[in-house]
Amino acid sequence: MDETSLNAPAALAGVRVIEMGQLIAGPFCGKTLGDFGADVVKIEATGTGDPLRNWRLLKEGTSVWWQVQSRNKRSVALDLRQAEAQEIARRLIAEADVLIENFRPGTLEGWGMAPEQLHALNPGLIILRISGYGQTGPYRDLPGFGVIGEAMGGLRHLTAEPGRVPVRVGVSIGDTLAALHGAIGVLLALYHRKAHGGAGQVIDVALHEAVFNCMESLIPEYSAFGAVREAGGSALPGIAPSNAYPCQDGWVLVAGNGDSIFKRLMAAIGRQDLGDAPDLAHNAGRVARVAEIDAAIQAWTAQQQVDDVVRQLAQARVPAGKVYTARDIAEDPHYKARDMLLTQHTRDGYDLLVPGIVPKLSATPGRVRSSAPGLGDDTDAVLAGMGLTAGQITQLRERGIVQ
């Protein structure tokens, strides 16, 4: 990152975001906006706060996942079951550009914060609502987490070896996809508000729809041919060759499915006969003989180490790569060269290696401006910014309205 971009205003500088979500989808969207300069004020429940603080592995009593998900945010702890806390939230939202929430539909309405009520206070407010099934439709009131969205969106049916149990992708991909769709929606709404008169709007993101939007030709194939795509294991069904192949010390992924790439791949593995076969010159012919092609590639990879395979195929200009573990990522020079591994000093007093920021903007890059807050770390400062005195804040704290 050069000196000019370091000193440039952040892309979202001046955008005020109130985040009322918890766990993954809403907060991941808030993190994304915060990484690019938005002032994100996270409203958490008094007591334990966002459950993500205690998810997976804890260090110094706090999840290391929390340290990533909540960087560049300020924490205000409110007991939203109380009317005075709801009024504080409304006052914060009245001055905001964006509200993010990922509660079950009807929760905001129960607090007297229906979109029409909030727009009466703040006509320019952009409200992002992420939920399992969306704000409308027959399933709107059903509980829904990311895993259910992945199943309904069609992804889980494909993530398996043929005939075996559908498996997780390994991360909360449904929540993350919903968060990214939400961030896109927020940016579109901010642009529309600026370009077309200042009106806010509601963005309705359903977890299953965010997954479904990434399912490529799944439905067109069913519509045109009645074809129901089935699990393909590590292969890319209908596109060949593209698969995972065993080596002596692990697995390697090889994508040799371009016409010219296929020829180079066959030359590299010593199967010029397949590279020169007229019926394998294009994808349709290769799909018809995919088992034979996969067997030929596997026979070559099985005799070698992963690194040797990757090196040889790189020389042949064939896309290939090993399956990275966390250790591989942490030690990889390319990740480091592109600032994708950042050292973040936590408020608990230790340094933590965390993922860098994506996407990379040349003029207004994102950056980590502050580490993840403790519960209610910023309550006093935010309330003072609203005009409350120290005495008023103390009274609210004594009555359990804020923390």
TrEMBL record:
Organism lineage: Bacteria, Pseudomonadati, Pseudomonadota, Betaproteobacteria, Burkholderiales
InterPro entries hit by this protein: CoA-transferase_III, CoA-Trfase_fam_III, CoA-Trfase_III_dom3_sf, CoA-Trfase_III_dom_1_sf
Gene3D superfamilies, A to Z: Crotonobetainyl-coa:carnitine coa-transferase, domain 1 (3.40.50.10540), formyl-coa transferase, domain 3 (3.30.1540.10)
UniProt KW keywords: Transferase
Protein name per UniProt: CoA transferase
Listed GO MF terms: transferase activity
Pfam families: CoA_transf_3
